[in-house]
Automatic annotation (TrEMBL):
One of its GO terms (biological process) is purine nucleoside catabolic process. It comes from the Eukaryota. It catalyses: uridine + H2O = D-ribose + uracil. Belongs to the IUNH family. This is uridine nucleosidase.
Length: 393
């Protein structure tokens, strides 16, 4: 069928002089090569378009959110359907403003932004805001002017449900903040978990300490009830936790080899840390993405130096987007994740590998399994991010 359609294509003038034709043995004699080349090119373009992963990024920008959004915009593997906003690093209204601003800063106002919930799934308004990590404005205290664009007239949850219905089984939500909007999408449409293609969550700390306190990772801590709903909803879920993202470091100076002694609270092998000066490379290149990020990154480096004693920054959010761009850079295990919603361990993610039959029914028994990332090719993730950010469109 494909080759039959080639006869419908016009012939190039230069090829009519001496058209090269496929031999009869191909079964479709008489098709000029130039037509085949054009057809294959058109076919590959259509295939590339068809194969691009449709992605919604749920985000609370956030310096590493900005990096992650830029990586997504610069990745031909992804088609960014929209940004949805949530509280976390900043309040939701500021997250929306920052999302619109980031798209404006790199000329991508064609991407819609849908504002998410201002409160947790249980309507709590006492939110944890990380101004000490990302600055009071969430973007390195740069006092950027307000964006001209406005969010769409639709909630984040409604946008997610709409896109999942438009493209059943094809949409990936990359969740880079607390999981309230996803939980609201499940409440809005109980069939959402079956209609969404995949949910990739930056959230949890599996067998290591958290980053809010020893128990909890920030995004899960932000709305543990929503997180427990999402983890047990039955969707195809990949969780990328601190055990993985703490291995992926953007280095800060030419002399920033990180050693175990410099990072006493890290419970894993630090050998994957790259030693090149990634920040300097970004500063020296002229892409608009790199220029923007270098403006806002300072406070993020300061925080990591104070909190973790490292001269680099963890690439939490970019690693999670790259899990959508190239899933082969991570390996994962599968089991049931439940979230502690109260007490001193509020926000703790507990993974059951389902290998043991417990003597009694537990809160994990019979629950849907999710994938949890366990290893990452950290240098490859950093390289991919740098490659995407150091060039322009
Ligand atoms: Ca984030």
């Amino acid at each position: 069928m494909f080759f039959r359609l080639l006869f419908l294509l016009p012939e190039f003038p230069w090829s009519t002089r001496d058209p090269i034709q496929y031999p009869d043995s191909w079964g479709y004699p008489g098709v000029p090569v130039s037509r085949v080349v054009v057809a294959l090119w058109l076919g590959s373009m259509a295939a590339a378009e068809g194969e691009r992963k449709k992605v919604i990024i749920d985000t609370d920008p956030g310096i590493d959110d900005a990096m992650a959004i830029f990586v997504a915009l610069r990745s031909p593997e992804l088609q960014l359907l929209g940004l949805t906003t949530t509280f976390g690093n900043v309040h939701t209204a500021l997250a929306t403003r920052n999302a619109l601003h980031l798209l404006e800063a790199v000329g991508r106002t064609d991407i819609p932004v849908a504002e998410g919930s201002h409160v947790t799934i249980k309507k709590a308004a006492k939110l944890r805001i990380a101004s000490f990590v990302h600055g009071a404005d969430g973007l390195g205290n740069q006092d950027f002017p307000p964006p001209a664009a406005k969010p769409v007239d639709q909630s984040a949850a409604a946008f997610m449900v709409e896109q999942a219905n438009l493209y059943p089984g094809q949409v990936t939500v990359v969740a880079l903040g607390p999981l309230t909007n996803l939980a609201l999408a499940i409440e809005l449409d109980p069939s959402f978990p079956k209609k969404i293609g995949q949910i990739i969550i930056l959230g949890g700390a599996y067998s290591i300490n958290g980053n809010v306190n020893p128990a909890a990772e920030a995004n899960i801590f932000g709305d543990p009830d929503a997180a427990d709903m999402v983890f047990t909803c039955g969707a195809d879920i990949l969780a990328v936790g601190l055990n993985v993202t703490h291995q992926v470091v953007l280095t800060g100076s030419a002399f920033c080899n990180v050693t175990i002694s410099e990072a006493p609270f890290l419970h894993f092998d630090t050998s994957p840390f790259v030693t090149d000066a990634d920040r300097e490379k970004l500063e020296q290149c002229d892409s608009k993405y790199a220029r923007y990020l270098c403006k806002i990154m300072g406070i993020y480096f300061d925080y990591h130096k104070d909190a973790y004693f490292i001269k680099g920054v963890y690439l939490h959010d970019p690693t999670t987007v790259i899990a959508a761009v190239n899933p082969s850079l991570l390996t994962c295990t599968e089991g049931v994740v439940r979230v502690q919603t109260v007490g001193i361990t509020k926000g703790l993610t507990i993974f059951d590998n389902t290998k043991k039959r417990y003597g009694e029914i537990t809160a994990w028994s019979g629950m849907p399994t999710v994938k949890v990332a366990v290893t990452v090719d950290a240098p490859a993730v950093v390289d991919l991010m740098m490659q995407r950010l150091m060039t322009d469109d």
